[in-house]
Design goal:
single chain, 453 residues, alpha/beta, 7-stranded mixed sheet, 6-stranded parallel sheet, 10 helices, 32 strands, 25% strand, elongated
Length: 453
């Protein structure tokens, strides 16, 4: 009960709505499992038994039904629902405010689209040993070691992902600065007292925010009593980081009194024992001359940068979705219990030419088929004399005889008629590809509610 885990799963996948369709984003297939499997498995692996999942009210039943069938152990979860009408107005901080009464301990926040095999114990140690107010997890991501990849669909110029500027004291991992590069035109100015208090700070522009945060319980209390924040990453964290070197608004000579309690003053929410108060009072006299101190500041933020060999990715774009599915088979043993098979025991596999692939339950792959580096969702049916390479087939897909698929994404309940050859194509939900269709770098769909890539 040291930590309460909160998983944000109410997103609708606006950046790649073309493949998400009407399903909940957290049920998007990665490696034969829905996205929500990976953060829940992460919580189970590291003993976070008390988990709250934030979802849209209209999607709760579908998500709950899918989770109930996942091979998860030692994790208890409940749901908190957002109204469909108000979902667009809810940010992550708004959602956390909604569940604040449930949280009785320090909290770990996880996005449902984060997949990682990080060793999380050093992150927990960083939080505990420094009595941190928050710890944010960063990684260098797949872009640090880019792998050439062709995204299925028409060839378009890929937009560059938004970059953050992350300031870290390399001596003690203090997180001292966090902002988006879009907030600055040419010059970056830093407060003088920040540099005086921390003699050496490195500004990183190549780190990705993994959207995994550890927060003190008092931070949740502050969010619950303040409506100035809508998002955790974009608004709350930068505010708390800036507050690290600020002084409390009132004198601490008499301790933390409940008299004249101001819920908008962040320092009013920090509970200190008598010894902590005496240490703080002693150090306030030399506040401006502090050098890299961690014990004399009420608010302490830290950054943990994952080792380069760690896999950590947010599946929040079509590029990342393709990347995750291409890497998941080789990395799955580091992400989940080794007893969980990538080829479901409830799948029917008649082919003896299947390699480096994942097959979900109730799928059937006939004999005389060649399957390589591909992902199959629930209830797929692949008929004989087919060849499928580097492709992703979502739930309920039918592939008839003599079909060749290479580097394709086939969405839910699509049908590929016999004799077709598709290369680098994206096939929309419920779409039927006619017999003997030959296509390369095409989006094949009805166009209804479907956005071209």
């Amino acid at each position: 009960m040291e930590f309460h885990a909160v998983i944000f799963a109410a997103g609708v996948g606006t950046r790649f709505r073309d493949i998400v369709g009407s399903r909940p984003k957290c049920l998007l297939t990665v490696g034969g499992f829905p996205l929500i499997f990976y953060p829940l498995n992460f919580c189970s692996k590291y003993g976070f038994e008390d988990v709250t999942i934030i979802v849209l009210e209209s999607q709760k039943n579908e998500i709950a039904q899918r989770i109930s069938k996942l091979p998860l152990q030692k994790v208890k979860y409940d749901f908190v629902c957002l109204n469909q009408e108000s979902q667009e107005d809810y940010g992550t901080a708004d959602a956390l405010r909604l569940v604040s009464e449930k949280i009785k301990s320090d909290v770990i926040l996880i996005s449902c689209d984060t997949i990682t095999n990080i060793d999380f114990f050093p992150v927990l140690d960083l939080f505990r040993m420094n009595d941190a107010s928050c710890v944010a997890l960063f990684d260098k991501g797949v872009e640090a070691n880019p792998t050439p990849i062709v995204i299925p669909g028409p060839k378009v110029k890929q937009q560059k992902s938004e970059r953050d500027l992350v300031g870290i004291d390399s001596e003690n991992n203090r997180l001292l600065f966090l902002a988006s590069t879009t907030d600055f035109q040419e010059n970056l100015s830093l407060p003088g007292h920040l540099l005086r208090s921390h003699g050496k700070m490195t500004i990183h522009s190549n780190l990705n925010d993994a959207h995994i945060y550890l927060l003190k319980k008092w931070v949740v209390n502050y969010i619950a009593n303040s409506d100035k924040f809508s998002t955790v990453k974009g608004e709350l964290l930068p505010f708390i980081i800036k507050k690290q070197l600020s002084r409390p608004l009132k004198s601490l000579t008499s301790g933390f009194s409940e008299v004249n309690f101001d819920q908008n003053d962040i320092f009013e929410h920090i509970k200190q024992n008598e010894l902590d108060q005496k240490i703080l009072q002693t150090n306030l006299n030399t506040f401006s001359r502090l050098k890299r101190s961690t014990n004399s500041e009420l608010i302490r933020c830290f950054a943990y940068v994952a080792p380069e060999e760690t896999f950590c990715m947010r599946v929040n774009t079509l590029l990342n979705y393709c990347q995750a599915n291409k890497k998941i088979v080789s990395l799955f043993h580091t992400l989940a219990d080794p007893n969980i098979p990538l080829v479901s025991r409830n799948a029917t596999i008649q082919s003896n030419q299947i390699s480096d692939s994942a097959v979900a339950e109730n799928s059937t792959i006939a004999e005389k088929t060649s399957i390589k580096n591909s992902i199959f969702g629930i209830g797929c049916n692949v008929e004989p004399k087919t060849r499928i390479t580097d492709s992703i087939l979502m739930n309920g897909v039918t592939v008839e005889e003599r079909v060749i698929l290479e580097n394709c994404i086939i969405c839910d309940k699509a049908v590929i008629k016999q004799g077709s050859t598709l290369k680098n194509c994206l096939v929309g939900h419920n779409f039927i590809v006619r017999e003997n269709t030959v296509a390369d770098r095409k989006t094949l769909s009805t166009g209804e509610g479907f956005m071209e890539i």
